[in-house]
Design brief:
Length: 363
């Protein structure tokens, strides 16, 4: 305990006076008692004691200040802690989301143009002008979820088998989409766009699988990690087209973003009217009934909703409780096949306040 010289003298003086105060038989004290009376002596003794207590309090306070004052070791520990935090921030800064590869962008632009309802054709694949049409390439599984789930493996929280299992969903979806496009090429063998699209898709597929296998075998390899994140972010099946950015993709981008297709149902449409004569039957048989339509998740979207609970941050909903899709429309889960809706409902939900149903997209 450090005590100043001034306090030492105060403590010494107080102790001496207190000792004398305790010795009532001392002649000088008896003379004083006779001069000022017993009451005066008691007041003097009380003052000495109070002074002594004040000094003790001051010392205790100084001790507390001494304890709270950081020691050299504590300062070093704090410096090391700050250094670690800085390193973590620098590491996060280095791992910024990579840009899309040229092949993934071209594949998305071609796929977009091949849609029957494309409302903003992209004429120049090298300079697509997406900002002019409020366009973006929406992920199905978000970049954030890809990154976080990959880190679970590289940080030792999960095994190589876990890593391979969820990335297998990418591989499966990619192979299905390539097979689908090859079937379309068989029907239109002269399509230069389809040929280029399949070429880009196959290149992305091979690059993704190679990067995945390398990281699975070397989880501590930072170069392998960087390569996998880049290929996963640009994987052709996960960013296969173009959709509205502001109002839709931008506020949703950290969540799973489903693409919902409208297709013809295999069920025969029901004729609700009962013909009253054979003539009416013949007339009605010549009329084409409108096909019955149904909503369903597209290939990669189905694989994303099959992810284990905990792999997906959340699914995005508007304020009315409808699922927000990649094209900006919303869908009630009841409109989807039961297996799709039940799988989605197992994952966390997020109401996206930034969603704008009156978004702009196209020219």
């Amino acid at each position: 305990m450090r005590v100043s010289k001034t306090k030492r003298s105060q403590i010494s003086g107080s102790s001496t006076n207190a000792k004398k105060g305790a010795d009532i038989a001392n002649p000088s004290w008896m003379a004083m008692q006779q001069h000022i009376g017993n009451r005066g002596v008691l007041q003097l003794m009380s003052g000495v004691k109070r002074k002594r207590n004040d000094d003790e309090i001051e010392i205790e306070e100084e001790e507390e200040e001494q304890v709270s004052r950081p020691t050299k070791k504590k300062k070093m520990a704090e410096t090391e802690s700050e250094s670690e935090e800085t390193e973590m921030e620098e590491e996060e800064e280095k791992e910024k989301r990579p840009g899309f590869t040229a092949g993934s962008k071209r594949a998305a632009f071609i796929s977009h143009n091949l849609k029957e309802d494309a409302n903003a054709l992209i004429k120049n694949y090298k300079s697509p002008g997406l900002t002019e049409v409020n366009g973006a390439m929406p992920h199905r599984m978000s970049y954030k979820d890809i990154r976080d789930n990959t880190h679970k493996f590289t940080n030792g929280q999960e095994t190589a088998a876990d890593f391979t299992r969820w990335t297998d969903r990418f591989v499966q979806a990619g192979n299905e989409k390539i097979a689908l496009r090859k079937g379309q090429l068989n029907s239109d063998p002269g399509s230069a766009d389809l040929k280029q699209l399949i070429k880009d898709m196959e290149k992305s597929q091979k690059a993704f699988e190679a990067a995945r296998d390398k990281l699975a075998g070397s989880p501590g390899d930072k170069s392998a990690l960087k390569s996998f994140i880049k290929q996963a972010n640009s994987f052709h099946a996960n960013v296969p087209d173009v959709g509205p950015h502001f109002g839709v993709n931008n506020p949703v981008q950290d969540n799973a973003h489903m693409h919902v297709e409208t297709v013809e149902s295999k069920e025969e449409p029901m004729n609700m009217e009962s013909p009253s004569s054979e003539m009416e039957i013949e007339e009605n048989s010549d009329e084409k009934q409108p096909p019955k339509l149904k909503r369903r998740l597209s290939i990669m979207s189905r694989q994303v909703r099959r992810m284990s609970v905990g792999r997906i941050s959340a699914f995005p909903y508007d304020s009315t409780g409808k699922l927000i899709t990649t094209d900006g429309s919303t869908v009630d889960l009841d409109e989807l096949p039961e297996e799709d809706s039940e799988a989605i409902e197992k994952h966390p939900k997020r109401t996206v306040k930034g969603y704008d149903p009156d978004f702009d997209f196209g020219l």
